[in-house]
């Protein structure tokens, strides 16, 4: 009697959750207000408003934009608000922070749209290896979202997982 190859992973009833599927596609860019400070220290309103008026904001069409200042300077909140208003017609998303913060915000928005009830009483494996830059914050967020409904949560690949959560 010959036995066929049995795929035990397929028969296990595990649901694989791949965060790469939630990776928002599009270019990420950062605007650093440091480039517009007088002597690298202060923001002059008139000069800054001139920059806002001159800048070609259309170059940010369909991009994800992070606004920050990497200089040790006090930048008034209205400066970021002016940039955000100028980017609104063009950019897909505008946030205050660095590129890492931008990734966190993008994943939080994408993950907030999933129907967690699809995972009710399921054994979920959150896929560990990815070809796209998935931030650690996305792994934390999906675990937070699934914990109230999933029977168990594991991390890794279905053939080799690390237990994360198991309902008591």
Number of strands: 7
The number of distinct structural domains comes to 2
Distance between the termini: 42 Å
Helix content: 25-40%
Give the overall silhouette: elongated
Report the order of strands and helices.
HEEHEHEHEHEE
Average pLDDT reading: 91
Largest sheet, strands/sense/barrel:
4 strands, mixed
Radius of gyration: 22 Å
Short description:
This protein is α/β, with parallel strands linked by helices and 168 residues long. It has two domains: 8-24 and 105-166, no CATH class; 28-91, no CATH class.
List the helices and strands and how they pair.
Blueprint (H helix, E strand, L loop, with lengths): L7 H4 L2 E4 L10 E5 L12 H10 L9 E5 L8 H11 L5 E4 L2 H13 L11 E5 L8 H11 L5 E6 L2 E7 L2
Parallel strand pairs: 1-5, 2-3, 3-4, 5-6
Antiparallel strand pairs: 6-7
Helix pairs in contact: 2-3, 4-5
Walk me through what this model shows.
- It is a single chain.
- This protein is α/β, with parallel strands linked by helices and about 170 residues long.
- It has helices at about 10, 45-55, 75-85, 100-110, 135-145, and strands at about 15, 30, 65-70, 95, 125, 150-155, 160-165.
- It has 2 domains: about 10-25 and about 105-165, no CATH class; about 30-90, no CATH class.
- It contains 5 helices and 7 strands; from the N terminus they run αββαβαβαβαββ.
- α2 (about 45-55) links the parallel β2 (about 30) and β3.
- α2 (about 45-55) runs parallel beside α3 and α4 (about 100-110) packs parallel to α5 (about 135-145).
- The chain starts with 7 loop residues before the first helix and ends with a strand.
